[in-house]
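Run log, item B.
One chain of 141 residues. Sequence copied directly from the ordering sheet:
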Amino acid sequence: MKDLSFIIIDDTELDHFIARKVITNANSDFHIESFLSAAQALEYITDDTNDQGIKIILIFLDIYMPLMNGFQFVEEFEKLDPKIREKYYIVALTSSVEASDINLIKSYKSFRARVTKPVTAEGLRTLLKKVGKEYNIEIGS
C-alpha cells in the first residue's frame, strides 16, 4: 500500500513482534520498519530518503525506553524540518493508564494518537479509520 507505511520504535522485541503481526494481518502490503532504539529511528527519519513517495508514515512510539524515551524522541522530532515532520503521524504506544502520562502525551503536538500496548487488531482498525479520515485516503482493513 503506497499511501501508508509504519515505523515501530520499541525496546522490547515481543512488542515489535506483536505490532508487526497485527499490522501485517490488517494488510500484508504495509511496509514496516522496526527500531529497538529511538535514536536509530530518528537518524532514519532525518535521512529523509526512505519514504519513497508514501503519503503518511505511522510511527508506533513506545514512550518508556532506555537512553532516549518517547518524549525525548518527540522533542528532537519537533526540531526537524516541517517538510520531514508532515509525513509522519506519531502514535504513543504505552501500557500506562496514569493520568500524568496521558496528560504529558497530550502536551506534545506531535503525538497524534495513543494506542495501548500490546497493539490489537481493534486498536489498529480504529487508528486506521482516524488516519484515513484525516488524510482522505482509503485504508482497507
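Observations after the first pass:
- The domain at 4-135 is CATH 3.40.50.2300 (Rossmann fold).
- The radius of gyration is 14 Å.
Flagged for discussion on Thursday.
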